[in-house]
Automatic annotation (TrEMBL):
Top EC class for this record: oxidoreductase
Cell compartments where the protein resides: Peroxisome membrane
Gene Ontology biological process terms from the UniProt entry: lipid biosynthetic process; long-chain fatty-acyl-CoA metabolic process
Protein name: Fatty acyl-CoA reductase
Family to which this protein belongs: Belongs to the fatty acyl-CoA reductase family.
Keywords annotated in UniProt: Lipid biosynthesis, Lipid metabolism, Membrane, NADP, Oxidoreductase, Peroxisome, Transmembrane, Transmembrane helix
Pfam family, one: NAD_binding_4
Species of origin: Oryzias sinensis
Enzyme Commission numbers on file: 1.2.1.84
Membrane association type: Single-pass membrane protein
Superkingdom, taxonomy of origin: Eukaryota
Amino acid sequence: MASITEYYAGKSVLITGATGFMGKVLVEKLLWSCPDVKALYILVRPKAGQSMEQRVSHMMKCKLFDRVREANPDFHKKIIPISSELTQPGLSISPEDVEKLSACINIVFHCAATIRFDEPLKHALQLNVIATQELLSLAQRMHHLEAFIHISTAYANCNRKHIDEVIYPPPVEPKKLIESLEWMDDGIVQDITPRLIGDRPNTYTYTKALAEYVVQQEQDKLNIGIIRPSIVGASWQEPFPGWIDNFNGPSGVFIAAGKGILRTMRANNDAVADLIPVDVVVNLTLAVGWYTAVHRPKTTLVYNCTSGGINPFHWGEIEHHVISSFKRNPLEQAFRRPNANITSNYLINQYWILVSHKFPALIYDLFLRLCGQKPQMMRIFNRLHKAIGLLEYFSSQDWEWNSDNISMLMTGPAGYKGAHYSI
Ligand SMILES: CCCCCCCCCCCCCCCC(=O)SCCNC(=O)CCNC(=O)[C@H](O)C(C)(C)COP(=O)(O)OP(=O)(O)OC[C@H]1O[C@@H](n2cnc3c(N)ncnc32)[C@H](O)[C@@H]1OP(=O)(O)O
Ligand SMILES: NC(=O)C1=CN([C@@H]2O[C@H](COP(=O)(O)OP(=O)(O)OC[C@H]3O[C@@H](n4cnc5c(N)ncnc54)[C@H](OP(=O)(O)O)[C@@H]3O)[C@@H](O)[C@H]2O)C=CC1
């Protein structure tokens, strides 16, 4: 049986979300560990005044690609950008590109999504659900497709305490929701969003749950694998320890604590902080692609890519490590000496917000005004409070994820414990 590296040799791979956090690491890892991969087709849109070509060229200059660049200075020739805006009909891929992709793609990794928690429902639905449907339709036109791998989230079913590696019935039939929202104006949608998302905390988890169902519906026509990572953090080992390029999830909170801005946050000291390094998720993604294509499981397999069941780490421990590490290695231009406390008590947290956040911010802004400068600290705290308000749901409770399919991949007859794909 082909090893993972052997499997990808000569294959053409399609990746959505390749310009994102996880997508970039996936591209790098494929180029590094599977040097004989034929081509990586990446769907990219122009953004922030940069053309698709400029964005890709900028991305390939990033430090993340140093080891690949050193091994093969011509590595960029394997990356083929395809212009695509996922929120448009047909993903706005040109007919010529559709032909090209249909003729050559062997495996699809669907990473693109909006991961904003406060995304208006219509937009989250458009990107996370409708674009996924469009991609599935495109996949069905691919003559040599061997596997379709969808990246979901471990929190798609966060309204449950115990989460198995199964697709749960969707909160609503996606087709009906899409049809209903089509004629509603944004104001009405905003008003009914809390009723629709029900016991989920945000539109992100809600639309990711719907997307899983939409993907599963195609299991008779496509060979599908679904990966559910928990909270994806900086790299553990590859391409080098500690790589991250965003403030999503806890990363922004850690930096705010390191700068001495964040002093208090609502979290449960004893709840499991289910963090998972991005390189571990990417290794698993490549292994799942290989397993799905080679073993062709009869039904869609779901992989809960979580750490709490194997190596539980708690928010209380995180607080300790984050603060002591920033005390040892202080950040530049810190507002105050780092010292943050987490508490599960609402009132205590409100007290410390007043004393340690709002009061110093007022004083500092007053000082800035007296110096003739624009006040800014209260504005920073307001943004921080909005961000942590959206994260508290995840840091205040525990979930239990079954990860039998991950164990099967690691230790079963197909065990993929290869040097390049450790998880
Ligand atoms: C020591 C104590 C330890 C305890 C620690 C507990 C942590 C407990 C985390 C649990 C985490 C669960 C995670 C679920 C796991 C998924 O399933 S993964 C999906 C994860 N998705 C996210 O994390 C997205 C969350 N972020 C958002 O939804 C939006 O960024 C927010 C928070 C609503 C802010 O929206 P906005 O006001 O429009 O602002 P946005 O343009 O996004 O950013 C404005 C600025 O704030 C910064 N920023 C964005 N997010 C953050 C943030 N989280 N923090 C700080 N700054 C941020 C941006 O970088 C940006 O900076 P500038 O470029 O302006 O300098
Ligand atoms: N980060 C995390 O903690 C977790 C992430 N996940 C899942 O992993 C996947 C990747 O997440 P992550 O890398 O962190 O997310 P990022 O936000 O870093 O990347 C999202 C990607 O999707 C692309 N995208 C978004 N909107 C569009 C659009 N309209 N048209 C074309 N492309 C678009 C972005 O492109 P552009 O650069 O042009 O904006 C980007 O490449 C997602 O499916 C997410 O749900 C799951 C669990 C945790």
